[in-house]
Amino acid sequence: MDSSPVVWRARGGVPVTAGMRYARAVIAGSTESRGFRRLLGEPGWQGLREAGVLWKYRKGERLLRQGFRGTSVLALVAGRVKVVQSTQDGKEALIALRGAGDLVGEIAAPHNGERTASVQAVDSCEAVRLEWGALQSSLGKLSDSLLREYMALKLAQAGPYKLRLVHFKPERKIARLVLELAALADPSIADPNRVPFTQQEIADSLGIRTSTVAEHVKRLRAKGALVERGHLVLGDREALHQAAGV
């Protein structure tokens, strides 16, 4: 059976995968694709939070580690994380970005399996840790259907982040990554317009050279889409959306 992602063609013949459509919805600020919290509703989300234990993580800290077994799931309540996967050459590939309202760890948890990726805090984060049984009890009769729907949405993003943007030029890739990071910023983040990645991290995430990132960041700054203040900050949102093609 072919497990490759479903592909549509946008105007101009550029392939559009389900994962790209998901990211586009996040960038556009669509609450429809902002996580398990939306599927569950506020009363259910509060019940889920009460069923687990709140953990706090520093920026850069690992919430979950690839290769480790576990039966717990984390419900993100504040901050952003990146999901990364170790490659054969010893590097790490960005798989996805997650924010408040998302679950992480739900693939391995049901059968105490090995984590297929690591989860690292982009900001100071808070997450509720629940054992798989506690999660199912909290969700009740809707447990299976809700988790299936959520996991199907996330599986649309399977594979390295850079491959989902492979058909785009560097400037569009950078603009989309920056906008997705901004869209996932919740009220706990003091400066949601600050880009939390260095240019090296942007290059690593997108699989392009640092010099290429520097060149196109300079162009985005010239358009007013980004501003340099010792770190990158979002500038003109309209210009940035135009560069991202969304």
From TrEMBL:
InterPro entries: cNMP-bd_dom, cNMP-bd_dom_sf, Env_Response_Regulators, HTH_CRP, RmlC-like_jellyroll, WH-like_DNA-bd_sf, WH_DNA-bd_sf. GO terms for molecular function: DNA binding; DNA-binding transcription factor activity. It holds the Pfam family HTH_Crp_2. Residues 57-150 form the Cyclic nucleotide-binding domain. One of its GO terms (cellular component) is cytosol. It comes from the Bacteria. Keywords: DNA-binding, Transcription, Transcription regulation. CDD domains: CAP_ED (cd00038). The keyword Cytoplasm does not apply. This is Cyclic nucleotide-binding protein. It comes from Actinosynnema pretiosum.
